[in-house]
Design goal:
about 950 residues, about 50% strand, disordered N terminus
Length: about 950
Amino acid sequence: MKRFRAVIPLAVAAVTAAVLTTGSPASAAEPSYAPLSSWAYLDSQSPNAKFVDAAVAPPVGTSRDDAGRKHTYRSFFTYDLTSFKGTVVHSSYLYTNEDTVDDCSAPATIEVWRTRPVRDNTTWQRPPAELEKLLSTQRGAGAIYCPSYLGFDMVPTLNAALARHDKSITIEFRVTASQEADARTGRTFEKPSLSATVNHPPTVTNLHLGYPDRPCGTLAKPSPAARSAVFSATANDADEGDRPTVLYAIWPVDHPDQRREFHDYYGTDLSDYADGTLLAWQAQASDYYDAGPWSANCYLRMDRTAPANPPNVSSRTYPEGNTPGGGTGMEGTFRFDAAGDRDVVAFAWRDSLGYSGQVAAKRPGGKAIFKYTPRLSYSSDLYVASVDAAGNRGPEKDYEFRIAETAPYAEVTMNGVGLPSTISFVAPKPETTAFGFQLEGGTEVRVPAVDGKATGHITFTATGGVDLAVRSYAKNKLIGQDSLQIWVTDAPGVESAEFNWETDQVAGTTGTFRFTPHNSDVVAYEYNLDDEWKTIPAADDDTAVLTWTATPGWHSMTVRSVKADGSTSMDADYQFSIIDTRPTAYSNDLNSWPRRDGVGLPLRVELGSQLPNLTGFAFRFDGGAEQTVPSEGNPYAYIDVTPTHAGDNTVVVQALLADGTRSPATTYTFGIWSGPVVTHTPEGSGTVGRPMTFTFHPGLPNVVSYRYSLGYAEEETIAAGPDGTASVTWTPSSWGYDTVRVTSVSADGTESDLRTEPLDIRDNRVDVYSTYDSSRLGIGWTGSFFFYTQLFGEVTEYHYRVNDGPEQVLPASTEGTSTLVAVPFERNGTNTLHVQSLTASGELSPVTDYDFTVGTAPYVVSAQYPNGTWSGGGGVPGTFEFSGGTPGIVSFSWKIDDGPSTDVPADSAGKASITYTPAEDHETHTLSVTGHKGDGTDTDTTTYSIYVSTGS
């Protein structure tokens, strides 16, 4: 979109804002003006003259000269519109300011007209004809400003001028005829400016159909089109940066009223049009601002009939069937034949890997030659279909063929950069007499085959990935080829007889590493072993030998060669492991948090060794007597030790070997938590309402007291007994997870670590839950409730009652923590279930009160069709009995699914029944039943599921 705009004076910005925002966003415009090509004024005192481009301010109205003579003026301004040719104006403003006013108290009506052009014979006596009044505005008396601003919208005026193909527009400024002779109306103006924001509507060219490409089509020679057609046109926009889109329209030629418009992004479905229908179509381009003109009509004729038969496919190179032909990587010639079907103009093909294409027939109904190199080895398929001019594809021919295995088996032994590498060949065909290899961009090298094998040498000049073509020849005939992707590296070779993946040496073993060059002119090697870079010089043969005495653990070595010019090769990485002569000792129990270790608590320690012929371990715990533990064929063993003091404890361990020797000793030192050890009775989980006794055992010597809190209560202090222990009794009042927090204090004021001991408290109350929800079932129904206890195994029975009913006893389930009880609904509204549990020891729990609501929905039952159960069958009648729900029911209404509602009266007991016979097997239906009371109110609605089985 091309934009022209002038800056509007601030005083009128608010007045003109609405005009400027018409069309495209004004904020995106660039300031410019329509050129003022000339201006002229007429003077009544010079009736036979005109004044063109005078160096004066344009005059309007009547003024007196120095001699007192009256001069009546009109000014005309001509603007060049040629730069707007072919555009649409979206915003335009003509504006100016009064320069002088003879008398601001005198009223003056300023008129602006579009006129005929100012010509050579234009005079006051022969002024340009006034064609269209554009503005009439009051100035002078009563005006806020004098001199003042004048401006107005020119969008419709300019667009009309462009529609007439006017190259210019002439604008007249004058005072209205009834005031024009008044000598007080004289004034002058600044030359008006004309701003504009315009857009070139885009156009379309190159209309055609695609895939396959076909011309636009004429009425006499329409293009054929299949059910799915691709419409294409080129949108052209003279405005830089605009991104036009294309809209298409299509209609049957004999039914223009069926025109439809669409965007073709991925192809268009034409399947609504019958075979042979003649269709017209056209295109239109639009940008953000305007739609361009519709193109001339194109024409197509529907062709919905695809070729009936697959094409004939043949190849001498790769014959169809199981006889191998051609060779690996060898191009073959395939012939596609339409067998005289003159609708066929091309052949579509695809292969087993998804590659595809199309080849044109030499003539309609004729043949095509297709050159193709199979991408698979051993066997492949070509799927070929005939294509007509509309793009319809016929059935595919699956052409299966085998590829002779002719490419050589080749392998490259990489020796690096600048040094000869070896390439080895093995021929798959006995007739192979030579092999060839060629680097990309290089010259092919051939080597003779001897007994189907050959070797050659190739020197790589740089590191990185390269493609290497390998070929087989029978005499001078190429019979097979392939490509190898080679990664060229100049990282040195690293090898060691002692230190490698296959052999785990023991620390202290002395061995060597041999570094071999993979580039030329190597003078040294840099190596990093155990995070330290060192350099070793190369021998005359560019190799180096490093002697090393093994240290225990996992090792990673990086090696690179250094050339005489100081450049280095790529890095070679080498890893190996060395067995430590000393065993390991470790306790994973010390990693828990909160800490679980403590004085007097057994601690598990894992002992380990990778030494060969290991039989076990000898160990001493904290200076005690030596003990042994067998490894039983494993590289590890476990021991349990019981610390007697907090702080550092030690395990000294040696590995025992089959020859009777021992490894050097390892000392494992670990810290034991000084927090008091907490025990409680009864053991296990606590229970609400049952007292528990906690005993604190010292982890430090001379403990005189303990600070503790139970169940997040306030901290308390208790004195320790002579043996350093203390006991407290606590009865839990709520269930869940609690903690015991305790710290010991010694006589010298030393405080231990804070012990945080988790504690599980079980609920002694019965928890009640139910699958009964807000379905509003009424009297007569039964609800399922579950009693759940955390004291499973202790509770033997439940005592419960409903509302104020009698107490009932229910044995507790022995198979799960929940026990099911069925409760008949006997009262509408809120009901309460009161439950207690009884343990084998005779402990009765507190009462749990569980409220539930009984609705008013009637009770429905059927012997033939139990609720939600597959039963009965098509044609099998079922009797459905209605009752209950709530007292006072005098009738029921019922319906099946969304069918009509039927009323049935209730008997004196509030009951009724109906018979319903399902029509078909394997149906499901919903029976809805609502009760109606004598007081005119309705009950809740029961929905009853009828599942119809097979009635046989």
